[in-house]
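for the recovery benchmark. tokens below, seq after
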């Protein structure tokens, strides 16, 4: 018998939490390999494709580097906020009615946990993928991100799709 409270378990909770665990595991494995095996920090910028570089940055804030926190109080406050968000997402997951919703919430939870592990271990989140476009007279650099960030964005996209086009979305008459 499942000992978790009813509001934390539902028919698709295990599926969503499995996706979350896989995302967090892949995110941490990628970061550990890049940090300690490949030693990305000592290599500077590494071109992967004409429009993608690997470059190590440490984000002490939240998405897009907002709310930078240098001290321990700010870092722990961000961790606490993330823990609250994960708990609320888990409650939502327990009520998920479709596999897409459960998968999307699992991706978001896994990404949040992956980045929270960084924040707890290093005091900042390790980001390393940089998309860019360069021409002779113009250049554009996207934000540096990681696998956890990709999972969060994919999860949000899944929830948006489900809201507007999914089976249970409200349809116009």
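predicted aa per position
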């Amino acid at each position: 018998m499942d000992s978790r409270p009813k509001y934390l378990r539902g028919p698709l909770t295990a599926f969503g939490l499995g996706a979350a665990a896989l995302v967090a595991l892949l995110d941490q494995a990628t970061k550990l390999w890049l940090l300690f095996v490949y030693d990305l920090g000592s290599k500077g910028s590494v071109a992967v494709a004409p429009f993608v570089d690997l470059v190590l940055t440490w984000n002490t804030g939240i998405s897009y580097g907002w709310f930078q926190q240098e001290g321990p109080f700010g870092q722990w406050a961000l961790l606490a906020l993330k823990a609250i968000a994960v708990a609320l997402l888990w409650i939502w997951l327990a009520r998920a009615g479709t596999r897409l919703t459960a998968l999307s919430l699992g991706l978001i939870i896994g990404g949040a946990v992956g980045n929270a592990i960084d924040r707890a271990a290093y005091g900042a989140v390790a980001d390393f993928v940089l998309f860019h476009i360069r021409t002779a007279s113009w250049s554009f650099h996207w934000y540096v991100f990681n696998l956890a960030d990709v999972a969060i964005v994919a999860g949000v996209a899944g929830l948006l799709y489900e809201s507007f086009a999914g089976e249970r979305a409200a349809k116009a008459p």
